[in-house]
Sequence to fold (332 residues):
Amino acid sequence: MNIRRRLIPTAALAALSLTAVSACSSDPASAGNAGNAGNASNTDKFDVVASFYPMQFLAEQIGGDHVNVTTLTEPGQEPHDLELSTKQTAELGEADAILFLKTLQPAVDEAVAQTDVKTKIDAATLTKLEDHGDVEHEHAGEEEHAGEEEHAESEEKEHALDPHVWLDPVKYAEVASGVGAAFEKADPDHAADYKKNTEALVKKLDALNTEYADGLKDTKSKVFFTNHAAFGYLAERYGLTQEAISGLDPESEPSPARIKELQDEAKADGVTTVFYETLVSDKTAKTLAKDAGLKTDVLDPLEGITDKSKGDDYFQVMESNLKALQTALGAQ
Fold:
């Protein structure tokens, strides 16, 4: 299975109230506490700095009215390329808790390591990351001409652990449970509410998992093409195969050989659609689709929410992704 990994910009959604968190609806967060890291500290609430949208969403859902959540990644910004300002780095150290996903944003990892914040929650430790392998197809045929050092670097990229766990509702629920437990420990005065909100969120994620499993159980094709390899966990969870134009880096350019390979595979596997994303260029995806006579559509890796997103929060966009996959794969 081909899977590639990439980071997503985060949107500044507001903190949900406890009532909204407990509800099993997918209503978007109302305007409230979320914002820039510059406003993250020195409030009367439990101040949480989230690295990018999927972490921000968890903090808001679990923390409810008790937390002030801010994000380091602006709406529409590519998380992987995030560089922190001196001010952001300084203010990061004033937070009560930091919620991040190690390896996704090197600049954040470095800044977190330099702070003495007591509660540092690394989502990568709360579920099992997997090596989806063979994600950098653009290197195929080139390595034999590269030096040993370049070859080693390419191999390292191909076998990097995939961080896109939030696109698998089951793994995201595991992360949510770990975040909830960390909040309970760090802010015991509100532990009961954190526990209640975590249970409500996990229940919604369980329902989403069931909806995906039922919706993708019977399809004409099991193969889908993506702009980059962000959907490895999702594909594995629901018995699908992701074929990425690029690898883990959404900005990398595929080789002509890779494009030819995808064109041939589209015919062999009955692929109808090439998916692209809202946060990176759709040029290559649309060119491939045109040359191969395929349709195009959006499959959102949910690294951030913008006005181009097909939904206002995690659950709404995941619902949109499911419908897009069902149409592309010919769900019965």
